[in-house]
């Protein structure tokens, strides 16, 4: 995603200025290092590196460099993900719909 710079694709420059921040997932104020550790542990199903590890320090440093000059405490344009429009037809997640798709048949409504 353009090395963490692409707007509307969870850019790293926009994430940097959001921390520290409260996360309801773990019920406390997280540092950026904690948030990055969570990405390793939960999003990547791996072991979380120590907060002072080379990889966490490198990611924080890169994010800082990308965010230089960005204001803090405000919603930045391009922050987060782009909002997608609703599909014209809703997906059919019923067992019958799945079976028909697996058999190569198409459901019509």
Automatic annotation (TrEMBL):
Domain of life, source organism: Bacteria
GO MF, any single term: electron transfer activity
Matches recorded under InterPro entries: Cyt_c-like_dom_sf
Protein name: Uncharacterized protein
Organism per entry: Paralcaligenes ureilyticus
């Amino acid at each position: 995603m353009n090395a963490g710079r692409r707007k509307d694709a969870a850019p790293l420059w926009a994430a940097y200025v959001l921390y520290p921040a409260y996360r309801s997932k773990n019920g406390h104020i997280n540092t950026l290092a904690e948030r990055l550790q969570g990405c390793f542990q939960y999003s990547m199903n791996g072991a979380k590196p120590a907060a002072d590890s080379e990889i966490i320090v490198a990611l924080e440093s890169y994010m800082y460099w990308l965010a230089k000059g960005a204001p803090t405490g405000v919603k930045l344009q391009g922050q987060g993900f782009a909002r997608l429009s609703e599909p014209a037809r809703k997906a059919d997640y019923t067992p019958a719909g799945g079976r028909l798709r697996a058999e190569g048949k198409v459901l019509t409504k």
